[in-house]
Amino acid sequence: MPEMRRSELGAFLKARRADLRPAMVGLSEDGTPRRVPGLRRDEVARLASVSVDYYTRLEQGRLPASATVLGSLSRALRLDEAQRAYLYDLAGKPMPSRPHRPEQRVRPAMQRLLDRLDQAPAMVLGRYNDILAWNAAAAALYEDFARLTPAERNYTRLVFLSPTFQALHVDWEDAARVGAATLRMEAARDPDDPRLADLVDELSRRSAEFRQWWSGWVVSTASYGTKRFRHPLVGPLTLDCDTWANPDDPEQRLVVLTAEAGSPSDEALRILTSWNAELITPSGGRPRPGPAPRLR
């Protein structure tokens, strides 16, 4: 690799580092004045899992970068596709192609199963915690997902950014931590996924809590638990939450919420679903206009 190209690569890394604030990459700021704009070298090195000395030499143009390190730096510096291609070109390395990930779809049989659970809120979550399908009971409990754009229809995004979701969850911090942890698991499986990088970037910019928990590297594989809600129509609900992997697609998970038979939460679910039967539809249907009736 010619010395001039190494120098250009170092200058590009330095410029990109200067464009980023710690909060943009999930790092917390301690409030002390920073002597350099953007990220420090040690912060980039930590994000890229290389030594500070190694990264310093790269910026100074004193050594070439391997393809593995280029991939780590692309993720650490949040490079978009054009910037990533430029980085590999400067390094004289071919940019690795990314395998195509087909769009996830829910089989009709799964949607029929959701619809049969008329008094149990249920949904199918896919990659990135995208909400792929749901039944009318889930829409009654959370909100009418059909009114959201596909980009907005993401469980973790809603937990962190939607005031409705935040007010609904009594134990919001627990729900949010799990949401961040499941995204961290997703990142471990496919760290170069641009869709995931965009989602993490948005949440890091807009949520201080997400930045804190994302940088803590917390992961979770919980498949069951209890969730407490404070619903604006029927009041408090305590529901058991169970999650099953789809045997046809391990990246899809069926989530079902149930209440103990005869409990106040069971009765509240019956009231909630009956009130909303004519107002909302499951996934694939058209949202019906008009607000749901409220308790007086």
TrEMBL record:
CDD domains tied to this protein: HTH_XRE
GO molecular function: DNA binding
Top-level taxon: Bacteria
Pfam entry (one): MLTR_LBD
Sequence ranges assigned to domain HTH cro/C1-type in this UniProt record: 38-84
InterPro entries assigned: Cro/C1-type_HTH, Lambda_DNA-bd_dom_sf, MLTR_LBD
PANTHER family xref list: BLL4672 PROTEIN, BLL4672 PROTEIN-RELATED
Identification of the protein by name: Helix-turn-helix domain-containing protein
Organism: Asanoa hainanensis
